[in-house]
């Protein structure tokens, strides 16, 4: 019979590549940069303009800023989720400790 609470971690327990904040930020920044270049060349919001060194550099800088912002947002979300899970676990543990151990089935 398998242990319902395994103590050792397996390869499937490690986060996937997409779940890592650095990777997500980098991919989001890259996609944003490509999107800005395509919008500029196709002229969705302004007249069409060819890509030159200056506009490519500006688009890359905007992608880096956007990717960094997405990295920070993902770190914040992950920390918030972890803190909420810890608080919920601690609340349950505290309530279990407060229960009378002599209570028949543990319910009130």
Furnish the topology, listing elements before pairings.
Layout: H1 21-42, H2 53-98
Helix pairs in contact: 1-2
Q: How would you characterize this protein structure?
A:
This protein has 108 residues and is an all-alpha fold. The protein has two helices and no strands. It has helices at residues 21-42, 53-98. The mean pLDDT is 84.
Oligomer: single chain
- How far apart lie the N and C ends? 32 Å
What is the global morphology?
Answer: rod-shaped
Could you tell me the radius of gyration in angstroms? 25 Å
The total count of helices amounts to 2
Largest sheet: none
Strand content: under 5%
Tell me briefly what this model is:
The chain has helices spanning 21-42, 53-98. The chain has 108 residues and is mainly α.
Jot down its keywords.
63% helix; mainly alpha; single chain; 108 residues
């Amino acid at each position: 019979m398998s242990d319902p609470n395994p103590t050792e971690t397996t390869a499937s327990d490690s986060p996937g590549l997409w779940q890592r904040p650095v990777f997500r930020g980098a991919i989001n920044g890259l996609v944003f940069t490509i999107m800005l270049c395509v919008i500029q060349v196709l002229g969705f919001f302004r007249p069409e303009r060819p890509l030159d060194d200056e506009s490519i550099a500006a688009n890359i800088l905007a992608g880096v800023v956007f990717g960094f912002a997405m990295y920070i947002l993902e770190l914040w979300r992950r920390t918030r989720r972890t803190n909420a899970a810890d608080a919920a676990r601690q609340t349950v543990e505290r309530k279990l400790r407060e229960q009378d151990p002599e209570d028949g089935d543990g319910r009130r």
